[in-house]
Amino acid sequence: MNDLGFYLVQALTGLSSASALFLVASGLSIIFGVTRVVNFAHGSFYMLGAYIAYTFVERLGGALGFWAAVLLAGVAVGAIGVVVELLILRRVYQAPELFQLVATFGVILVIQDLALLTWGAEDLFGPAAPGLEGTVNILGTRLPEYDLALIALSLVVLGALTLLFHRTRWGTLVRAATEDREMVGALGVNQSWLFTGTFFLGSMLAGLGGAAQLPKGGADLLMDFNILAAVFVVVVVGGMGSIPGAFLAAVLISELGAFGILVIPQSTLVLMFVVMAVVLIFRPWGLLGRPEAPGQHGQVGPPEPPLRPPGPRLRAAGLLLLAVLLALPAFADDFTLVLAVEIAIMALFAASLHFAMGPGGMVSFGHAAFFGGGAYAAALLVKYAGSPMEVALLFAPAMAGVLALLFGWFCVRLTGVYLAMLTLAFAQVGWSIVFQWGEVTGGDDGILGIWPSEWASNRLAFYYLSMLASAGGILALQYVLHSPFGYAMRACRDSVVRSASIGIDVRRQQWFAFAFSGALAGLAGGLFVFSKGSVFPDEMSIPRSFDALIMVLLGGVKTVLGPLAGAVTFTWLQDEIGRLEYWRFVLGALIIAIVVAFPQGIAGFLRARLGPWFGVREMEA
Amino acid sequence: MNRLKHAITGITGSGILAGLAFVLAGSLHAAPAFAADPIRIGDINSYKRLPAHTIPYKMGVELAIEEINAEGGVLGRPLELVSRDDAGKPGEAVKIAEELISKDRVALISGTLFSHIGLALTSFAGEKKVLYVAAEPLADALVWANGNRYTFRLRPSTYMQASMLAREAAKNPAKRWATIAPNYAYGKDAVAAFKKVLTAIRPDVEFVAEQWPGLFKIDAGAEVQALAAAEPEAIYNVTFGGDLAKFVREGKLRGLFEDRLVVGLLTGEPEYLDPLKGEAPEGWLVTGYPWYDIDTPEHAAFLAAYQGKYDDYPRIGSIVGYNTMLTVAALITRAGSTDTEAMVDALEGLSFDAPTGPITFRALDHQSTMGAYVGWTTLEDGRGKMVDWTYMDGADHFPPDDEVRAMRPSS
Amino acid sequence: MTPLLEVRGLSRAFGGVQAVDDVGFTLDRGRLLALIGPNGAGKTTCFNIINGQLAPDRGSIRFAGREIVGLAPHRIWRLGVGRTFQITATYPSMTVCENVQMALLSHHRRLYSFRGRAAAQYRDEALDLLARVDMAEQEDRACSVLAYGDLKRVELAVALANAPSLLLMDEPTAGMSPRERLELMRLTAAIVSERDIAVLFTEHDMDVVFRHADHILVLDRGKLIAGGAPEAVRSDPRVRAVYLGSEADAGA
Question: Which of A261, A381, C136, C194 has the fewest CB atoms lying closer than 10 Å?
Fold first, then answer.
């Protein structure tokens, strides 16, 4: 084998893998740039592109038919994106920032079940592209012809997008909107059509990406989540809203992957997240991105009313709730207690995230790092030191806090979505360490047999223990929110310049606040281990982070009770609906319905309706 | 939409609205259990995470239950399956297990596919003293390092299947081996077991490359190139599903498999071989399930019943599901009650005849002796098949008893 | 006696543009120094450098005899430099009183304290400061709903919370009615004399400048082109040419 040929082919293989990644990522980048919607459903559009193209290829046949099918799939997915935008997202643009991502999460669930119903469970093996089934010989090494076609396709799309954005009025508007949204409003542009058009283009690119990779693999039901993290990494590394950035990042990550596996074959899990973390540390807005306008985060929509101590009726309601929880075992069955424990743990987890992302203004997409970090800290202490549960439950928040100090030191240097993505990157690095380091952590076989101490091992005792710890944690978060520390944290969110000019070391304040939030997530994780008896890397994974995010946003990020409402609703719904065969469809549809009905979140809605009676003051008009 | 509506109707007995009403009302009434009513089996599986594997499993389960109940059930009571999706999450599986036990009053828990979910339930079963019959998870630790009194497993484990392949592979003169396996516990176990057994028989072999693509995230072209660069004489493949499809296509295009022995764990299972259609690899040594060629009367009866009921052919999941329910029926019959301790005692050393041959649950480590089919892949009528296969009895592929005893926790 | 603030050779460029070019001046306690100049003359850059938000390319700033170049804004504030902003920077999710309490909590080094409700701490001190700027009656309103002029006064109260010896006020009267402007500047002048502090401010309204400043510096394209008592500056031909010539005629 010729060495040069080998490396050349490896490089070209990397470029061809970058192709689908770039197509999908550029779509996401455009959508985010213009609408500021973090579209979790983008992976689903990619998956739909693959399935729809598969169906078209079967119907049409032939070389012309193949490419026609790829294009048609792109257009069809673009149309689906428009439907999602018109029916769902358009109704919630005015909601607090990031709220739309809850809706897109619902869309993911709906599409997963619809795809299963339409195309069945079995993986569909993609057809080879007619006329491009063979290979070319490059200095003695074979390269599939279709790899070259993919490389060409990505260059064509890059060129077309560049022309579109620099040579057409619509493209210029998209660029203007990406840079400054206010300005577009001022120009008198019909913003809603600009958004709809953007969704069409972005979704179409995702569909095209899915369709174009058919000959490299096929269509299966796990494609959506499998590409999602990689696409977000590419968008963030490239700089959100930047097409050339997305291209550069896709190439960078694919090439590092292609050559990385030659040096460290195990690097497949973690490499891109390490790249993202390094890029964000040195270039906080990605390779070709621009700094975000200050004050854009957590500040969309009406300003938050000042914090007030709960009035007498609200206190009474809180005490009543505690009394009900205290008495619950007297009239509830065993499983209700198990479910209540789970809800309480999730409520604490969500409340800890809310502390950071609501009043703290630091959105974390990787909070599972601390939940799972606490869980693993407790489990490892039990496993290796034979520690009793009581010590492990203290160790969990302590170690999660230390972990949050470590990650936070880097994260608080960033703001907004970049901060969120850096937390995600660190969480993934943490996840892959736990996943890969089987000798110590058990890898994905987890750590088993972590059960409560004797006295707490019956359901009743453990119920009271977890209620005490969860309620204690949530009340501690509330207490700290009203303390000088909590006020200073909120001050840093409200205005960085004002805070600095009254002597607040903004980064340090946020850093400690982030760590405090992480510590309480760790307490939730510690409780979780003892409630399940085992821990797996799943508890540090992206879906676990998303759970908390969905709970906080669903409940209402601008209300103190939001995370509780969100945790109760989400956990309970999941359990109830989980009995249905098509539970994902039903849960997704319900989430979308809730999002559209309560754009301020469930607790936001309740506050507007019941707040006055409870003595909660709304903003003056 | 019709199909969806139909599906939900099938569960709730009315339309989507009633489905929602059911959801809202569900928590209010836990179903009471009466002494004379069916024996409930708590079934947990990843029905949504990997439906290609778990739906055939459930079809096999339902066929078995139908047949068992048609013959009068067990102890005079019909079996009833309470089936739940674990969403692919171990924490969720534990919660559902609690719910099945305390709310649905099931006699035991069965099912599961993913190893980590199986392990979570193993831990749960040991602590809460609940019988757990693991159907498909392959992790060796399930019955060995983390084994306990209440956990049993049906399907041959990673070690057993890798051992079957390694013994066959040892007959080939190839000395330079490369491996490719998904980067998670199953992949690592499968490679370690294969290496252990192969090098024990053939001390002269060397492993020249190991590739570890992320599960379902393979960058197939780059991985194929990396394997080729090591110039192995033989390749051991553990990838499956979408990863396998991509690996096979790239490997064929780039000539990786030319003049090389390829050994594939699970590659011959219909779940993974059939989607490849006309591009299925030829001449690989694999474990799988050649349902089309197994002509024992027991299997012929199973096949006829399955095809009669479903108008589809069985997958490996189907036969495992079927055997799981045979296990459940046999163990309850032997125990004479649904008392957990009695059931555990009954299952230790239990033997019965399954379509795949006789199966015994070893008292030593609670692993069944269900075996696997090992053979060579070929293309026939545009689809992959296994030929020259033999059924290898699991009983022949265990480490020595004292080694197993040493691995299992003493308590 | 060393001056309270001594600026020497301050320079800062953005890309190719010299925003501040070799600026130097001194300021003593009890004085109001106005920094004027057309838009883009470098006033805000100058402020941001003095208050530590921006690093200068060159130059020295001595505050009470101590070099402060290179110190972070929050450290400079601890030395006794208060600041108000051209576009008001307050905490919209807090009440008027809490905005001032926040500065007091910082002053008393209670930022990392978990003890007690923040809203109950240093409340009387805060109300006193608000009374001084005539905002005590609105203490319980959210800052997000205040009129702009009121916000400016809240900022003044916030800036006074750590008993500063120097106040930096960037366009303190921007966006106010003429009557409000004079009131605010009268209030500022009164505070300067009663607390013996120094004020450095920028201002567009020449009426305000010439009525209240003790000393005026004129900045044009980053350079100081004139400086002195209001009368001297008013009659300086260079000032009239680059600055007053255009702005005064426009009736600013």
Answer: C194
